[in-house]
Amino acid sequence: MNESTPGVPRATEGTRLDPWFDSYAARAHQMRASEIRALFAVASRPEVVSLAGGMPYIGGLPLGDLGEMMSRIVSERGEVALQYGSGQGDPALREHITHVMALEGISAHPDDVVVTTGSQQALDLVTNIFIDPGDVIVAEAPSYVGALGVFRAREAEVVHVPMDTDGLIPSALEETLTSLRDAGRRVKFLYTVPNYHNPAGVTLSLERRPQVVEICARFGVLILEDNPYGLLGFDREPLPALRSLSPEGVVYLGSFSKTFAPGYRVGWAVAPHAVREKLVLASEAAILSPSNISQMAISTYLDHFDWQGQIKAFREQYRERRDAMISSLQEFIPEATWNVPDGGFYVWVKLPEGLDAKAMLPRAVTARVAYVAGTAFFTDGSGADYMRLSYCYPTPERIREGVRRLAGVVEAELETVRIFGTAGGTRSEIVDFPSPDLA
Amino acid sequence: MNESTPGVPRATEGTRLDPWFDSYAARAHQMRASEIRALFAVASRPEVVSLAGGMPYIGGLPLGDLGEMMSRIVSERGEVALQYGSGQGDPALREHITHVMALEGISAHPDDVVVTTGSQQALDLVTNIFIDPGDVIVAEAPSYVGALGVFRAREAEVVHVPMDTDGLIPSALEETLTSLRDAGRRVKFLYTVPNYHNPAGVTLSLERRPQVVEICARFGVLILEDNPYGLLGFDREPLPALRSLSPEGVVYLGSFSKTFAPGYRVGWAVAPHAVREKLVLASEAAILSPSNISQMAISTYLDHFDWQGQIKAFREQYRERRDAMISSLQEFIPEATWNVPDGGFYVWVKLPEGLDAKAMLPRAVTARVAYVAGTAFFTDGSGADYMRLSYCYPTPERIREGVRRLAGVVEAELETVRIFGTAGGTRSEIVDFPSPDLA
């Protein structure tokens, strides 16, 4: 059955293995699994300390009581819970969501809310309705890998704007928007994670918030405010959302994945009226309706459990893990530099001169520790000297052990650099597709 | 604050009401809610008999036992159930799905399966990876409204191929593909619902199945086999799926929404290996991962409940409702014609000469009965003389009452036609977006 001619190279073999190769849409040819995926399969083994994932710590949830809650929902209201629902989402949950957002100064009507299958779906829907191929999205440098994956799938061009310890730099945003306008480029929106940034760990300061809103309004650029971590600050009350400063200029994305549990896959978008209508239509085309049973679980949890107390408990747990991460870095890898996040899940670590986080990753996994290389969070190939370390999931003891293992790898790399002048790093333009491992 | 000049018409007011009107992607301008939506809001009132929706009858499910099952899943396995999962879906559920599909002659490996948020999401993902704007999709005339909505959202052109009581007509398919090829058009796939078609109620005969597969293979056209109703036949064993005849030529979509419960939003796609890889990447961009708790609920249900017995019970219930629908049509609207479906949810009714189902719909809703006008199931404006009646959700008594009310409306319309020669029908090219009401 082998029809190849001996001696003739089978140059097209790669495409011939896929009989539908020629049928794909242009965008699908951009979709490819990076080599990082294979690594993560290894990294998910129990003997590896994963500082890579964004999985929340849900061990502290009252699972027995939640089980009882699920039982009641199905046995008492199963004919609704197990049926199709509304495309926009359950009105009772949308009402609850307005109360959750009020904690960040947002005043919204339940009609403004669209419930989605995690806030990732909301991100996809907004990109769907705004982005034509070649449009520009302005985003922080670095940016959430899952957003960059969506933007790439919709064939947008991402232009990064630098941050400092106070978050996105307004003057840099203004410069970027000016030069894009002068170049005749169409900027559709600013994508920003203002609170406890993924991966950078920083928060947009109170002073800068109205400045960012004003600049975007002046340039006619919509703001896409992605806020999964806003209630997870360690030391302070939530800052006012950008949405609270400009209801008509901001589409706000929220999620229960980090404040409650990701397994239900419930997030939401709040949008200006006309945008909201299109989001609902796009969502119905994508999934018909979000899960009723999941939505009723969230509503019932918000109704009958001390959800704000649970968030407080999460914050204490994450603070303890953050402390374990920072003290381990100080002890084991003092050659590196990092920020000290005051909320959220991530520390953004700059490696010592000459080291390449992506090139080093296979060696780290061999040493039974995993992280995400900084290149995943840029579309322009930069970030190789950074890595994202997550402290959300492992225990403080595991975090300490993970950083200790990482230190051994860094030390060996530095030794190589001292001898050969390079650790063999490569810059890559491949943006990884979003993966649950990277959430 | 009103800056309009008196006497100057505000021609752009419609767009000025939406500050982001100029920012939308080209495809988003195609997204609009049809007038049908407003009607359905009325039609969902309890006094209206809805023969419009595709909501399954789930009252027969053992809700108490299912509640107990949910309780166990969360209390005993909550740390997995409430966490993020794999983008491709839970391996245990994918294994179960291969056994479900074996009932229709499909031999697949769990690696071939991608779990989705309802099969609607699978439909969206397949369209995403294959369709560039302007590509052609060949589909039955009529076709599922939710599929047409996805195809429109992705800017495909749909070319309809006629059916008869044995389903899609192979010679017509061949003619259509020939003339499209001769016109230099790019046909990406055939979209087909081979079993108990939505809305036509017919089934592709055993004889025609290999013919359709052979024709598509000859033209290099992928088959997208959408099969939510295959196990819901009243009088016979399931027919072999097209996928069973051509694993490399068919992407198969399945769903638990009609054989178990839609509230969990669990469907799946089975695809050739390379296509499956792209589906996983596209799904991760869209939602990161399907809901773990929903997937574990389906797996546990398949493991511990008599799911095949439940499907048998559903079939008996739906048969009884089909009988109520057909006998009511015979008694109350003998002027119309219809098929007698031997499975699934729908009767496809041709109205008497001169009547327009879309124009008649507001009057029907006023008479407290609802249906879906045939125009929703075509992209070319035809179908006005048809309506889809669903017998899945209402009781036999309600079905009888609904058809009785409908007969009054038809009678009044016929009277108008007799007097004025027309009932005031209009042809429409607006395809409604999919809505849970129309599932």
Secondary-structure blueprint:
Two copies of one chain form a homodimer.
Chain A lengths: L12 H4 L9 H4 L5 H9 L5 E2 L12 H19 L9 H12 L10 E4 L1 H13 L5 E6 L3 H9 L3 E8 L2 E2 L1 H13 L4 E6 L15 H12 L2 E5 L15 H4 L4 E6 L11 E4 L2 H15 L4 H13 L2 H26 L4 E2 L7 E5 L6 H10 L2 E2 L1 E2 L12 E5 L5 H25 L19
Parallel strand pairs in A: 1-12, 3-4, 3-6, 6-7, 7-8
Antiparallel strand pairs in A: 2-9, 4-5, 8-9, 10-11, 11-14, 13-14
Helix pairs in contact in A: 4-12, 6-7, 6-11, 8-9, 13-15
Which short descriptors sum up this protein?
homodimer, 439 residues, alpha/beta, eight-stranded mixed sheet, four-stranded antiparallel sheet, 43% helix, globular, disordered N terminus
Provide an overview of this structure.
The structure is a homodimer of 439-residue chains. In chain A, the strands form three sheets. Chain A has an eight-stranded mixed β-sheet with strand order 2-9-8-7-6-3-4-5, with helices on both faces. In chain A, helix 4 (63-81) packs across helix 12 (292-304) and helix 13 (307-332) packs parallel to helix 15 (396-420). Chain A is globular. Chain A is α/β, with parallel strands linked by helices. Mean pLDDT of chain A is 91; it is low at 1-14 and 426-433. Chain A has helices at 13-16, 26-29, 35-43, 63-81, 91-102, 118-130, 145-153, 170-182, 208-219, 242-245, 273-287, 292-304, 307-332, 357-366, 396-420; strands at residues 49-50, 113-116, 136-141, 157-164, 167-168, 187-192, 222-226, 250-255, 267-270, 337-338, 346-350, 369-370, 372-373, 386-390.
